[in-house]
User: Which sequence fits this backbone?
């Protein structure tokens, strides 16, 4: 007779045996360790340093048709800014040639009447700006930066003149902008936490996607199934070891974010651990589901990359704003668990513990984790069919 | 633990009206078709049938790994469908490719299965000891399972299955690809289990000679049961219908081919020095000038072949027309008669020596066999001969050149049939033939002539527009051989061509091979079927990368002749050679 207690004891023995086996395999075939620890480091380094939404050292052609003290002052103000590397062009055709040859991204052109009009209150001073619009994003950024540079120069000039001219009177509103949570507007502060979510989606899914498919390929699953092992025990035996590995990779990523990339962390650690654990479960669950369906390591890893990494990158609001996507695509983003985790990470890193933001997103992740693990459980039952 | 099972039930397994099909109509295949059977307790039952007969499906249904479409399966008195976990807790099941964790050691594999089967810690040391002694793995507990030889892996799989003694043991093809020594050891273990522990063992096999080891045999073919009885009962009615023929001059295979044409002869195969013949009912052996007849005891294979013949009356008989000569030019007497020469050939993979100073030569028009268990170095030797792999040291020449360095043109003189039949499964039979013919540069009238030849010779006309992936295994083999012969090669390499093919197809296959050899085509073949060695003119037996013996089948058999065994079979000879004291057994060094 199977007494409940005896059964529970046997169950612990079986789960223990499976977990022990999994760890032995991890140690003997270090590819899982590489996925859990090496992959996040490589990806964080590539993306953390490579992807930047800031523009710095924009090459700029500076053309003054009648060089004088004012044009020199404007040039100097651009030259001093870290955002520009201006180069003086002798004339406009030369500057245009530079633009075509991609030596510069924009041309600031001061016509010959620039100084004259600048000092006349009644007429605005003309300034021509030509921008390479091939990369629309970069062009918009460059335009805004050049305008800002031009305005700060005007303001400095006005201040130096001691409000003598009527110029200040023509600016009735003064903008006092303050930027919250990321005062320096470092895009890295925003990107690195998002990257962690994207990378951990991939790693979590890849870890389980490979190992279950491996058992299929080597025929070990068939032998396991005829032992008294219960499917739930099999799933737990798979999830626990890779959960531990995944959390290790997660810790490494967070440590890199804080100490290597200097991203501030304002939230509480236990909330980070809790939400990370949940997020990892969604990724592991998805990988498990993929490998139960795919039954082949190669196919499983391809599916894992296509269905986890790409959506996490594109549809999570990591780089592309969800609000500006078409409606049907927005609906699709609700299925991407990285979407919720990115909001949580941004909040925990840059803002702090904000329950109103954290709880709904945590619950959404919980729902996804439950869905995938339950789906795996259902699917594996009719396994050998 | 198993007290809730019905103890006095005499049937270990009872199956009623079982159906199981795979795939969707119209491509659905009936893997198990209306099967009903009973397996009594405490016996060894053999489930016998060629590949694709439904053996594995039937076993998986018994183990509760598949759900039947219809019918019921009772195992140890429990309905498998209703309570698979209870059944799985009281049986042992060893799948065909047993799931050993290759990166775990022998001991770690055992411990894992002890954990999974809930073996109490107190009982473990004794049980491990018992199993390790029984399987002879005691000295290898720290070795990774992946580094064991095929036979040792199989024994470890069995030990893992037995770690908590089951009442019923299901073994799916435990002896496939295992060397004859390990095969005998596995059988010894099975008998010990039945005798000492009162276990019931159901095992499947494609080796027909193993049927005679079983208490009862269930014969399965294309998902249906052809019969269940003792091995003796299967052969009883064949008494007086099986004879051996011998002729003083000529090759055995010529005599076999002649006898096969006779209307009263159902089956003729080469068996040692004799040609073994199965006669039609109430027929007597035909007159044989310069020859002798000797009555032989019927064997299980005779009964099986007879049954399959009955099943296939509707099918067209195999083509009897002689194969068109592969070369239109007159017999090439100008060519050197030594077609393949191998001298001190060695191939290393890192520290592992797969082929170790192997030397042999093959004459034109000879059928030359490479015999050995899995991992003996046959395939590596083959790949070097075909120019697919460079040799580490030693010399070799095929048709006068080393194919690895020779121009592609030289390769056109050989045909190669890979172990897994390298066919394009989504292309039709005709498209496959055309592709391979064109790959060898056949075109125009020559191409259409060869296509017509292939369809006629291999009787593939009926299937010409069928995708090759959907062909029955025997026809896949025919197509693969046709593809390898499209360009009329002088030398044909065949790597395990008969694996998993049923006995009738095997006979047809050897008929074709013999005719090719008679036309001067040199045939080089690897096999792990010991009885097929008899069809070769000469052969070498390989083990652990070395040649153990070389010569004609009769000469090799003679090496194992002792007073106790005056007429050893090829398998006896193999075992005698492999167990010579100088040979370290089992382990891969």
Assistant:
């Amino acid at each position: 007779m199977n007494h409940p207690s005896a059964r529970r004891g046997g169950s612990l023995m079986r789960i223990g045996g499976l977990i022990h086996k999994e760890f032995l395999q991890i140690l003997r075939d270090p590819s899982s360790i590489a996925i859990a620890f090496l992959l996040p480091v490589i990806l964080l380094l590539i993306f953390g340093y490579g992807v930047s939404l800031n523009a710095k050292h924009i090459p700029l052609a500076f053309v003054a048709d009648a060089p004088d003290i004012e044009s020199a002052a404007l040039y100097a103000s651009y030259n001093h800014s870290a955002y520009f590397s201006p180069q003086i062009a002798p004339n406009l055709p030369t500057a245009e040639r530079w633009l075509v040859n991609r030596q510069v991204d924009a041309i600031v052109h001061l016509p010959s009447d620039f100084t004259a009009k600048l000092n006349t209150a009644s007429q605005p001073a003309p300034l021509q700006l030509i921008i390479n619009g091939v990369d629309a994003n970069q062009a918009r950024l460059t335009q805004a930066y050049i305008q800002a540079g031009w305005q700060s120069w005007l303001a400095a000039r006005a201040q130096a003149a001691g409000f003598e001219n009527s110029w200040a009177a023509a600016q009735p509103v003064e903008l006092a902008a303050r930027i919250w949570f990321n005062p320096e507007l470092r895009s890295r502060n925003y990107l690195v936490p998002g990257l962690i979510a994207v990378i951990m989606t991939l790693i979590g899914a890849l870890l389980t996607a490979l190992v279950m498919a491996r058992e299929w390929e080597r025929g070990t699953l068939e032998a396991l199934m005829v032992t008294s092992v219960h499917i739930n025990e099999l799933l737990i035996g798979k999830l626990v070891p890779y959960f531990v590995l995944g959390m290790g990779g997660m810790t490494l990523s967070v440590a890199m974010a804080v100490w290597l990339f200097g991203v501030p962390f304002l939230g509480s650690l236990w909330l980070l651990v809790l939400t990370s654990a949940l997020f990892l479960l969604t990724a592991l669950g998805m990988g498990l589901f993929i490998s139960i369906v795919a039954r082949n390591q190669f196919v499983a890893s391809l599916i894992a990359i296509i269905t986890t990494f790409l959506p996490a990158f594109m549809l999570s609001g990591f780089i592309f704003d969800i609000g500006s996507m078409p409606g049907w695509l927005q609906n699709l983003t609700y299925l991407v668990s990285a979407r919720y985790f990115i909001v949580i990470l941004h909040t925990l890193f840059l803002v702090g513990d904000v329950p109103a933001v954290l709880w709904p997103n945590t619950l959404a992740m919980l729902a996804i984790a439950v869905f995938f693990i339950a789906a795996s459980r259902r699917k594996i039952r009719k396994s050998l069919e | 633990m198993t007290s809730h099972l019905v103890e006095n039930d005499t049937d270990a397994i009872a199956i009623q009206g079982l159906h199981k099909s795979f795939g969707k109509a119209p491509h659905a295949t009936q893997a198990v078709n209306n099967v009903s059977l009973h397996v009594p307790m405490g016996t060894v039952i053999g489930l016998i049938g060629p590949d694709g007969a439904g053996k594995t499906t039937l076993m998986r249904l018994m183990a509760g790994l598949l759900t039947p479409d219809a019918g019921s399966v009772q195992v140890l008195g429990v309905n498998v469908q209703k309570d698979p976990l209870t059944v799985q807790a009281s049986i042992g099941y060893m799948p065909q490719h047993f799931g050993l964790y290759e990166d775990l050691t022998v001991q770690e594999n055992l411990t894992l299965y002890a954990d999974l089967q809930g073996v109490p810690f107190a009982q473990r040391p004794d049980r491990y000891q018992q199993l390790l002694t029984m399987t002879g793995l005691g000295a290898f507990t720290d070795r990774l399972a992946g580094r064991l030889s095929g036979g040792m892996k199989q024994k470890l799989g069995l030990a893992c299955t037995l770690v908590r003694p089951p009442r019923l043991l299901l073994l799916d093809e435990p002896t496939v690809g295992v060397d004859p020594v390990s095969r005998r050891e596995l059988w010894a273990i099975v008998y010990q289990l039945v005798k000492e522990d009162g276990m019931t063992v159901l095992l499947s096999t494609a080796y027909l000679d193993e049927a005679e080891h079983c208490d009862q045999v269930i014969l399965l073919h294309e998902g249906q049961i052809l019969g269940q009885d003792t091995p003796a009962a299967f052969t009883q009615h064949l008494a007086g219908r099986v004879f051996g023929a011998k002729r003083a001059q000529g090759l055995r295979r010529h005599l076999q081919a002649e006898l096969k044409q006779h209307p009263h002869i159902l089956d003729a195969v080469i068996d040692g020095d004799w040609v073994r013949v199965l006669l039609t009912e109430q027929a007597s052996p035909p007159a044989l000038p310069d020859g002798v007849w000797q009555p032989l005891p019927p064997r299980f294979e005779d009964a099986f072949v007879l049954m399959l013949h009955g099943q296939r009356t509707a099918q067209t008989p195999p083509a009897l027309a002689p194969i068109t000569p592969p070369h239109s030019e007159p017999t090439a007497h100008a060519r050197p008669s030594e077609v393949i020469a191998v001298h001190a050939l060695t191939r290393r993979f890192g520290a592992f020596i797969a082929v170790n100073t192997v030397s042999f030569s093959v004459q034109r028009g000879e059928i030359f066999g490479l015999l050995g268990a899995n991992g003996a170095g046959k395939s590596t030797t083959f790949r070097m001969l075909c120019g697919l792999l460079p040799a580490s040291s030693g010399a070799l020449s095929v048709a006068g050149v080393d194919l690895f360095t020779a121009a592609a043109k030289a390769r056109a003189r050989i045909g190669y049939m890979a172990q897994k039949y390298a066919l394009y499964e989504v292309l039709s039979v005709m498209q496959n033939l055309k592709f391979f013919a064109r790959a060898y540069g056949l075109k125009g009238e020559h191409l259409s002539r060869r296509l017509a030849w292939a369809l006629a010779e291999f009787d593939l006309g009926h299937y010409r527009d069928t995708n090759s992936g959907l062909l029955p295994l025997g026809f896949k083999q025919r197509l693969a051989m046709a593809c390898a012969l499209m360009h009329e090669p002088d030398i044909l390499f065949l790597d395990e061509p008969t694996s998993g093919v049923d006995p009738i197809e095997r006979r047809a296959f050897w008929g074709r091979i013999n005719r090719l050899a008679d036309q001067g085509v040199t045939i080089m073949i690897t096999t792990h079927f010991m009885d097929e060695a008899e069809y070769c003119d000469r052969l070498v037996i390989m083990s652990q990368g070395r040649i153990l013996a070389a010569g004609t089948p009769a000469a090799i058999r003679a090496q194992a002749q002792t007073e106790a065994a005056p007429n050893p079979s090829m398998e006896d000879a193999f075992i005698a050679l492999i167990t010579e004291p100088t040979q370290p057994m089992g382990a891969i060094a």
